[in-house]
Amino acid sequence: MDWQFILSVSLTTAFGPQAIVFALAAIGLNMHFGYTGLVNFGQVGFIAIGAYTVAMGVDTFGLSFWLCVFLTFFTASVWALVLGVPTLRLRTDYLAIVTIASGEIIRLVLRANTFTDTTGGAAGIQNFAGDFFGLNPFTGDRKALNIPGTDVGVTYSANQFWVLLIGWSIVALTCLFVYLLVRSPWGRVLKAIREDEDAVRSLGKNVYVYKLQSLAIGGVIGAVGGIIFAVSRQSVVPDSLGTALTFFAYVALVLGGAARVLGPVLGSIVFFFLSAFVDVALREAIEADVITFLVGSEVGVVRNILVGVGLMALMVFRPQGIIGDKSEVAVSVRR
Amino acid sequence: MSGADPVVATSAQAAFVDVPPEPGAAKADPILVADGVTRRFGGLTAVDVDHVEVQRGAITALIGPNGAGKTTFFNLLTGFDKADAGSWRFDDRDLVGVPAHKVARHGMVRTFQLTKSLARLTVLDNLKLGAAEQRGEGFFSSLVRPLWKAQEAEIEARAEDLLGRFNLAHMRDEYAGSLSGGQRKLLEMARALMVRPTMVMLDEPMAGVNPALTQSLLGHVKQLREDGMTVMFVEHDMDVVHDISDWVIVMGEGRVIAEGTPDQISSNDDVIDAYLGAHHDAPKTAAEEQAQLDEIHAKIDEESGDAHG
User: Fold this and answer.
1) Any residues with CB less than 8 A from the CB of B97 and at least 6 apart, and which?
2) Mean of the per-residue pLDDT values for chain B?
């Protein structure tokens, strides 16, 4: 078995474009769930809105790529209002109910034949990020970066490198943004709403407005993840935006540690590292005849089982996530 | 502090000298006036208050047996529930239909029967949250620390002052969730004071508090009055009420059934009826017992006399 290869592939996945998308989606969920206590089961809807605002804006409406990126802030905020205005005056459960359907509504509308001229239907839209890759300073075939002194490292194409550079910069900026927000009195109100919104109301704060703001901010962050999702593939297809994406983002959030600024980022990286590691290691083991009771086509399923067991173990032994605060969890259990 | 206590108490009680002990009595200087406030839950009329006034600067107790509608009335006044009918004015401002957070901003701040300490916020943060008109609570301004840094320091100083007063200073950096029941009551009261209210509405401030802390809580409630606030509190323990309140309003089955000073209330038959049920004419003294017996004998004689006649 080639451990260098296994580790290299795992690292390449852990820092790849997908990890960025889920890091951003999870940062958005952290805003909703971690800080405000809003249960949003439709984060994939915001990802879809980001992806399709750019794809449709460029391809269908002929707008500039950069204008579309800017427009995403607007479209995602409007979607947050659509979801939030009717539900956020009510208990948290109602938002959960509405959002769990919302992601599917968006996907089904996007793939409807009726709108094929606008949305591309089930086939989606391809090749809309030319403006973005036009600015790519990297050239050549493949770029490899090894951990000094070893042959273990990451390998990406020039275009991927460009996506990653911009993507991780956005993740860093977003984390800074979230940090500034949550250390402020504004963030204190959000955390208080998470604990008990009636108490916050009794102190003269307009809880509804704060919840709407939180939903919109987390949604916009998720939509930015959606832009990276679309751009990194140069393609959007409705069926790649299934409900599971929301739950993977939750996994990243809980794995890293909710209500921690860097929790979702770390969670996303660790999640993609582990699932790639288990996958490649199993395949290598089968190839080297170390494992004889599995065939290659079964690896995907076994990987999901193993990763699932691992996550369960995490929840049992470290419910606060990798960088969560144990005393915080203890307090919430005691309540 | 305790030396000044009786003086202030008399001045608060003096306001009630000319007030007749009857439901809906007019007060000299009412801060809160409610008329025809009704709340129904299906077929049940939980609150049906004709007229009630609350004197400014005094401690008014709202008592009544379980299910009398005290907490529901509180919820209506503070915007946490919507009345089916009625009007009420606070500080000459119409508060009907005003949402809870605006009621608080107008100066009427409440606490809850089941304490709402914000468990995963520190004790200090719980208090700082209470401060009104914080510049750092706006979304955009929150990003620029220099805009709110000075105000935040001010708020923190005020919060620490209150923590000291309420004996919570040592718990400053603990999560509020780790406080005892009584400490949570103290925390909630202190947090309400951060809003700088003119009227504090306490929903069963003594419920679930151990007796040792009850005295301390009572002291804090009196202190609110000395600081110039109006206090109204819900309670069903009559002893507690007698000790600290200047005026008592009694609710039963949604209505105001009696009003008066604590002394007047504790000898009021309607109140005893409400608490113990209507058939409680058991004699309290030997003389009373004899009087009742005589009365019954007289009646029997009268009736037998009628029969013979």
Assistant:
1) B82
2) 87
Judged against a pLDDT cut of 90, whether residue A52 lies above it is answered with yes
Delimit the domains of chain A by residue range: 3-241
- What is the SS3 string spanning B271-291? HHHHHHCCCCCCCCCHHHHHH
Distance, CA of B278 to CA of B288 (rounded, Å): 18
- Topology at the third CATH level for domain B5-117+179-278: Rossmann fold (3.40.50)
- Structure tokens of A91? 């208990």
| Domain spans in chain B, listed from the N-terminal domain onward | 5-117+179-278, 283-309
pTM across the whole model: 0.89
Output phi, psi for B58, to 5 deg. -120, 170
Smallest Cα distance from B141 to chain A, Å: 9
Specify the amino acid at residue A279. D
Q: How confident is the model at residue A229 (pLDDT cuts 50, 70, 90)?
A: very high
Q: Where does residue B86 fall: left (phi above 0), alpha (psi -120 to 50 degrees), or beta otherwise?
A: left
Nearest CA in chain B to A176: B143
Helix extents (H) in A205-262: 207-233, 244-256
Tell me the pLDDT tens digit for each residue of B125-147: 999 999 999 999 999 999 999 99
Closest residue by Cα to residue B192 from B233, B147, B153, B154: B233
The residue type of B247 is W
> Do the Cβ atoms of B129 and A181 come within 8 Å?
no
Q: Confirm if A259 and A34 have CB atoms less than 8 A apart.
A: yes
Determine, for residues B78 and A202 on separate chains, whether the beta-carbon distance falls below 8 Å.
yes
Task: Give B188's contacts in chain A (Cβ within 8 Å).
Answer: 199
A327 closest CB neighbour out of B104, B139, B175: B175
Among A55-69, B136-150, B209-223, B283-297, name the one with the lowest average pLDDT: B283-297
| Alpha carbons within 13 A on the beta-carbon side of B232 | 28
Q: How far apart are CA B180 and CA A112, in angstroms?
A: 57
| Per-residue pLDDT, A333 | 45
Q: So what's the pLDDT on residue B76?
A: 95
B129 Cβ under 8 Å from any chain A Cβ: yes
> Per the CB < 8 Å rule, is A207 touching B178?
no
* Min Cα–Cα distance to chain B from A177, Å: 8
Q: Do A185 and B125 touch (CB under 8 A)?
A: no
Alpha helix segments (H runs only) across chain A? 3-14, 17-29, 43-59, 65-87, 92-111, 116-119, 130-134, 158-182, 185-195, 197-202, 207-233, 244-256, 263-287, 299-317, 326-334
d(CA A75, CA A86): 18
Chain A residues with CB under 8 Å of a chain B CB are 177, 180-181, 184-189, 191-192, 194-196, 198-207, 213, 327-328, 331-332, 334-335
